[in-house]
Amino acid sequence: MPRPKVPLLSADRIADAALELVDSGRPFGVNALARALGVTPSSLYNHVSGRDEIIELIRGRIAAQYLPDLPEGTWDDVVASTMRAQRRMYAEHPNAIPLIVGKTITDPFTIASYDNLATGLLGAGFPEGEVLTVVAILDSFALGFGLDLASPDDIWQPQGPTQTLGRLLAGAERGAARSDRAFEEGLELLLDSLRLRLSRLREDD
Amino acid sequence: MPRPKVPLLSADRIADAALELVDSGRPFGVNALARALGVTPSSLYNHVSGRDEIIELIRGRIAAQYLPDLPEGTWDDVVASTMRAQRRMYAEHPNAIPLIVGKTITDPFTIASYDNLATGLLGAGFPEGEVLTVVAILDSFALGFGLDLASPDDIWQPQGPTQTLGRLLAGAERGAARSDRAFEEGLELLLDSLRLRLSRLREDD
DNA sequence: ACCTGAACACCGTTCAAGT
DNA sequence: ACCTGAACACCGTTCAAGT
After folding, report:
1. Is the pTM of this model over 0.85?
2. Could you report the per-residue pLDDT of A109-152, keeping only the tens digit for each?
3. What is the distance between the alpha carbons of residues B72 and A43, in angstroms, rounded to a whole number?
4. Taking a C-beta distance cutoff of 8 angstroms, is the pair A196, A126 a contact?
5. B22 and chain A: CB distance < 8 Å anywhere?
6. Surface of B (127-146) touching A: CB under 8 A
């Protein structure tokens, strides 16, 4: 069946199927994706440049869904809303995290979200030279918690006796509940300390 | 050359070569590792169960080097020292991060390090039900910054015009310097807010 | 006990051939 | 323009055969 009159594939259809494959929990790959699309692996190369571009399509798909509405309001509202949106995004597509992590971000929605964050921080009074650092901190935080979600239920598995860890682990919440609570508390901690930093900066004026 | 009198391989030798391969920046894999060891891939299976175990060996190797001395002192010294040790570990083996991330931790040195952290926080006055959450926050933080280091120089690459981000990126520090500064500042923020949290907890007494 | 070599079921990518 | 099929150089893992 070479060259059908109406194309079987498109970047859009590939993106949809790729995200579906990732979310299904089956291992992601070009060949597996082709199988899911009922097509030969080489067919995909008529529409995308390869594995990496498909992964960027996945990032774009997710970001378009969770990050299109740029939060407004006070700077700490912007920070909190942006972080929570990222959190929701990661929470509902945890299997995408290991794929998109550590790759340069070009997706417009994701860029716009960070841009909005930077603008908010700058407006709040954080100095030019510090805004990007704060954004990087927030990014690391979101990413770390994303990975926390994508991790196995038992992150720590002591093989021998411990002073404290083993006992706490035995009585601890598991999985998503633990991770959610840690995220909210961590977010509060970060906001508190950013407020502190800001008030110190204002004292210096 | 079957069954040499003195074995060519051992878990130790495999761990050494694996870390070396990872640090070299060449793609890590069982076959590539076997080549580096001058041996057939199947030979490795006489000493390790497979790829995953080799990766745990790498984690152990790194942890044994950076986390053997458990920091003492005030709780915030313990937190800062532990975070900085992890940071140094990631900084000097950035290519190991994508491999070890998201796998259950069994390595004794790593466990001992987190155990020490938990014990310190508990002693400082953080309630039982909260210690693990704080440890998870610190872990997420360290991991996020580890990934930040392993990431390409340009994490954000806007394709179009931006309000703030593009301008800040143009004047920003690059690579390790930026990441180091962000880490130190982020650590200060976290410590500040943990101190704040602790003082509030003490007020309630 | 510890290595090799063949074999298997996978990868991601390229490219000539077909319409 | 868009698909197939063959081909290539890789993966990780198993297992019989050799000493």
Report:
1. yes
2. 999 999 999 999 999 999 988 898 888 888 878 877 787 777 76
3. 59
4. no
5. no
6. 128, 130-134, 136-137, 139-145
